[in-house]
Design a protein that fits this description.
- The chain has 497 residues and is α+β, with helices and mostly antiparallel strands.
- The protein is built from 17 helices and 21 strands.
- The strands form seven sheets. It has a five-stranded mixed β-sheet with strand order 4-12-9-11-7. It has a four-stranded antiparallel β-sheet with strand order 17-20-19-18. Strands 5-8-6 form a three-stranded antiparallel β-sheet.
- Helix 9 crosses helix 12, helix 10 packs across helix 17 and helix 12 packs antiparallel against helix 16.
- The chain starts with a helix and ends with a helix.
Length: 497
């Protein structure tokens, strides 16, 4: 029962079975390797790609052509200084820091909406401002279209004199921007992005993928989408005859997910994060369409339509993100992974006619009536209502709050409202009474329950339909690559593990 005895028994068992053409039991699996001795090169060997798995990967490779033959794969832009950091702020003179109240997090090339508005740019200057996104905004099939960040898109050809307010903004950070030239050992105008790329890859039709992801996440987009180097862009070459939406279906299929599981580098402590970069994405085998073959044309059209449908459904699904906390519904693949809508967010997003607050709800009272300078520091437990409230015609309870200056505040209301407040008030710790009294409350329990059920039901129905279409896509792609039922089981078992 020692490790040594176990190893000896295993070696003895292998010796008995190794000469069979094919053998399989609960301990060992004997088969011909998909990788022959002569095929091993000086490059790193992937020991997972042997036997059955290697055979399937080789089959996928033979049925397709590397993506790089028909598409360009480009990294996002590199600004070299998206914002002020704890490190680069040391490059600025203290007089400049004090004059402009510069602090870590302030935007240099990448600005939030408030920073952008504060520049008061002219119409011509606005042409240099592009919508900016992060890789976390890329989901399978769908990239977010709403942005809260913007990038100043300057190149070596930009005549900064024509953009005086942008020039003034960047000049504040000139020492930081000039330092990039030393770091990279290059020479270019101090005000340009370090690697601006060709704007066409950001503006036109494209497929996006995040640099790091646990599984394939390829999104189709035709809208301006600027990102930093943590995202990659797939755009068609002149040799591409298929629709990029057809490629999107292939890239999000189980077959390609399986391929990438074995042909991408891994990151993280458990190696659960894949690295999608130019090297790994370029090699993905794409099954080309023969447009002289009527059946192939039908398959191409079918997959494009299914991708259109998924994108439409995911856009609708994304509208329900506002009812969930810490969840991106467009990333969920399994129905059982859907949590319940957040009670506070459901209430906050009720129509105005169905919404009240602590100040306006007819069934909510509080003592004292006008708590001056109250700032929430602690939340007590739910208690029976005080005597003065029992004269009302319904059972009430109350909850007691403490302020930072040891002030006391009690809110009394029906139990369902108090239980709701006890959950959501943790969001308001440190907040003054002026904000607390505006906490949204449903006008009645029936209204709240109805809305919560409506949201939950709609989200689940959308996910079910998306999953159904994805299954249909997987079936078509399996057939395109000639995958057998036995090979399919191996692919799906591998992905589930």
């Amino acid at each position: 029962k020692t490790h040594k005895e176990k190893m000896e028994n295993m070696v003895e068992w292998i010796e008995k079975c190794i000469n069979r053409d094919k053998y399989e039991d609960e301990f060992i699996d004997v088969f011909y390797s998909g990788v022959k001795q002569g095929e091993l090169t000086e490059e790193a060997w992937n020991l997972m790609q042997v036997g059955k798995i290697a055979g399937i990967l080789e089959k996928i490779k033979q049925r397709g052509k590397s993506l790089i033959n028909i598409c360009n794969v480009n990294q996002g832009l590199v600004s070299g200084a998206p914002n002020v950091s704890n490190k680069n702020i040391k490059l600025l003179p203290q007089s400049i820091i004090s004059r402009y109240n510069i602090k870590p997090g302030d935007g240099i090339f990448v600005l939030n909406r408030q920073e952008l508005q504060s520049l008061h740019l002219s119409e011509i200057e606005i042409t240099l401002i592009k919508p900016y996104f992060r890789q976390t905004q890329i989901d399978p099939y769908l990239a977010e279209e709403e942005n809260s960040l913007f990038v100043i898109y300057t190149t070596k050809d930009t005549d900064l004199k024509k953009y005086p307010r942008i020039k003034a903004h960047l000049e504040k950070f000139q020492p930081i921007l000039e330092n990039r030239l030393k770091v990279y050992g290059e020479s270019y105008p101090w005000y340009k992005l370090h690697r601006e790329r060709d704007s066409k890859i950001f503006e036109g039709e494209k497929i996006l993928t995040p640099n790091f992801a646990p599984q394939n996440s390829f999104a189709w987009s035709s809208k301006p989408f600027y990102t930093e180097f943590d995202s990659y862009f797939i755009t068609g070459k002149n040799t591409l005859t298929e629709s990029l939406k057809y490629l999107t279906a292939i890239l999000n299929s189980k077959i390609t997910n399986f391929w990438c599981a074995h042909n991408t580098k891994k990151k993280g402590e458990r190696g659960l994060i894949r690295v999608y970069n130019t090297g790994s994405v370029s090699k993905i085998p794409i099954r080309r369409i023969n447009f002289d073959d009527e059946k192939d044309v039908e398959i191409h059209s079918s997959l494009v339509k299914k991708v259109d449908r998924i994108i439409k459904l995911k856009k609708e699904l994304a509208e329900y993100n506002k009812f969930y906390s810490g969840v991106r519904l467009t990333r969920i693949k399994k129905l059982e992974d859907v949590s319940e809508p957040d009670e506070y967010l459901v209430t906050e997003n009720l129509p105005d006619e169905d919404k009240r607050n602590i100040r306006t709800h007819s069934r909510v009272t509080h003592e004292p009536q006008n708590p001056d300078d109250f700032s929430l520091s602690g939340i007590g437990s739910i208690e029976p209502a005080p005597l003065f409230a029992k004269k009302m015609n319904e059972p009430l309870v109350s909850i007691h709050f403490k302020g930072k200056a040891k002030e006391s505040l009690r809110i009394t209301a029906p139990r369902e409202i108090i239980e709701y407040l006890s959950k959501v008030l943790s969001r308001y710790k440190g907040k003054p009474w002026d904000e607390i009294k505006e906490i949204p409350i449903a006008k009645d329990l029936k209204t709240f329950i109805s809305k919560k059920k409506e949201v939950s039901s709609k989200v689940k129905s959308l996910l079910i339909e998306i999953q159904k279409i994805q299954t249909e896509i997987d079936e078509i792609v399996y057939a395109l690559y000639g995958i057998t039922e036995k090979e399919r089981k191996i692919i799906e078992k591998t992905l589930s593990e």
